[in-house]
Every structure is written in C-alpha cells, then in structure tokens.
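SUBJECT: A protein chain and its fold
Encoding: whole-number codes for local backbone shapes
Chain under study, with its fold:
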Amino acid sequence: MLKALQLTRTMCAALSLGAGDHGLRLGLDFAEERELYGRRLIDLAQARHVLTGAAADVLLHEAVALVAARAVQSQTAELGVTSAVTKYLLPTGTDQVLADLTGLLGARAFLKGVHADGRFQKLQRDHRIVGLFDGNTLVNLNSLINQFRSLVRGFRRGTGDTAGSDTACDLGAPLPPLDPAKLSLVARHGSGLMAGLPASVEEITRRADLNPALGPVAEAAHRLLAVTTAVHTEMEEYQGALTEVPPAAFEVARRYTLCWAGAACLGLWTHSTDRFPDGPDAVAGAFERASHGVGSRGDRGTARPPRSTTPRRPR
C-alpha cells in the first residue's frame, strides 16, 4: 500500500496544477478588467508583482510535475523521494499562490456573483483537500526525514540513478516501461537528480561563457548548489531522527524540497529548453523562484519575477 501511494501522490500533482492554472487565469482576468485611480489594476506595479510571482510559482510546479511524472518510469526506485517532494511542494505551493491572488482580488475572492460567478472562492476551497489525502504535509516531510541518511550519503558520493534523472529531464527521450517491482520505500542510493546537480551547474556555466545573457542564471545555479550542499550538511544532524522528530528537521526537509525543485528546473533547462513553447525564459522564472525560496529559513521566500513583466496567460 505504501508503495502504491508513491504513484498516487505523484499523480495528485495534476490537481494542484489545474487549480494553480485556473486561479492565475481568474486573477489575470480580474487585473485586466478592474480599474483603480483611472488605471487598470494590471498596470499597477504591486499587482504585476503578485501576478508574476504567482506565474513563476505555477511554472515551478509544472517543472516539478513534469520531472516527477517521467521519473515514475525512469527512476522508479527513487519514487519514495520524488513522490514525497511532489506531494508536499505542489499542494502547499498552490495554496500559497491562491492566497497571494486572494490579496489581489480582495473581497471579490470570497463573494459570489461579483467576479467570474464566484469561481475563485470555490476553487480555493476545493483545493484545500489536496494537501490532506494520500499523506498530508507532515507525512511527506517525515518520509523525507526518514531517508536523510541515504540522501546525504548519495549526495556526498554522487550516487543515485543519474541516467534515469537525465531521461526524466529530457522531454524528448523515450521512457522505459513501468516496472512496479522496482518500487522501494527508501531511495537506497540517494537521489539521482541531486547527484546530477553539479554537472547541470557546470553545463549552464559553460553556456553562460558562450552567451553572457545567461550569466545571472549561472550565478543562481551556483547559489543553488551552495545552498543544496549546506542543506545536506544540516540533514546530517537529523539523519537518526526516526520517532521523536524535532520541528527543525521538518524545516530542513522543506528546504530540501525546494533544492529538488531547483535541480529539476535546471535539469529541464540543460536537457529540454528547446522543447518549451515559451523558450528558456519560462524555465528561468521557475528556477529563480526555487533558488531564492530555498535560501530562506522558515519563510516562503520571495523571488525575482521572470524577465517578462506580464505573466503568460495559462493555456
């Protein structure tokens, strides 16, 4: 049953992706229609900041879901980590996106018959359950804490299924058939995605040398690697916590999920940017969101919005 939950937790990503996309569309429609002080709401800097931040979060969640869904077949043995990261990060992140958009809509986020027939308040209410079933937030973070020992060892040694990680990040690569026998409660050799992070940083640095416009992205990649290394050092302190888990361990696990998300974005960048209809900027916005968020302790963290000052309209 616990192994089967790894599959369903990964598929739950679709529920959060749909809610985030829908909420962003409703918020963008409202900002384009609403007028304040003789200007449209979308023309005001604060409103644009909220919308671009929400758009970057939605893109980050999409990147995580893409890699996680492909990893079901390409990295089946590491799904104990992948599914826990996905089931924690997407529901909690989408709840925060909807909360941010609630501030933008104001009272219209709660009232029926005022904006979009009250769909936003229904959407926000319906999504709250996603973070509870198939293992709630603390269950998934605790699952990661239970694997701290193997994750730290794998990161230090550079072990894990790096070939499977490359396949998950290359959207054009064929996927092997699913072999349920490979499902494991613990990623014994660590995370291949994390083990491949240094190589991804080297690759984006090489590209930045050829294209100076990628310099800021390369700098963010190096920051992510430094923070990821520091997070694994913190994980060592709690790798024996199996029953009486201190609250600080859950915070370390939360930051690990953002490191994983940043590594997923960077993996997609180095393997699949030519396959994204919105080009590298889409991955850049998501990667910036993860790399800035993981640098904070306790707070969700704020990130620089994507280069485009107008969020892409969800499809």
Remarks:
- The chain has 13 helices and two strands.
- The mean pLDDT is 87.
- Residues 92 and 131 are 7 Å apart (CA to CA).
- The longest strand covers residues 35-36.
